[in-house]
Amino acid sequence: MNKVFLIGNLTRDPETSTTSSGVQLCRFSIAVNRAYANAEGVRETDFFNITAWRGLAERCGKYLHKGNKVAVVGSVQIRNYESNGERRTSVDIVPDDVEFLTPKTGDSSTSLDSEPNATASAPSTSTKVAELEPVEDSDLPF
Fold this sequence. Notes:
mainly beta
């Protein structure tokens, strides 16, 4: 199984383009902090190249900006190619889903309201958490 789950911040603004056959793509990279610190006590960061396609590419290009926090769910794709006679390898993440984690601002250019059917969504800052009532141990099924 080839499945990747990443949460990180965009390191640059997304770059959108269209293939010769008319398919839209969007490339961006995210920085993901490691869960542990190195020997000097510093948490290292990994950088991942993301390539989104079609409708997801359009939404990412339209709503994402450098510094935005996103969750990416997808797969790893490894490409081999030659450049100036040298064999090179490129590792990309191809997302199935990108969730926008940076809250919306008052700026209309980053609002998701104009895209009612957007798969990716930003959490609302006004979300209320319902209070939970305590459960007796005797009511648990295990």
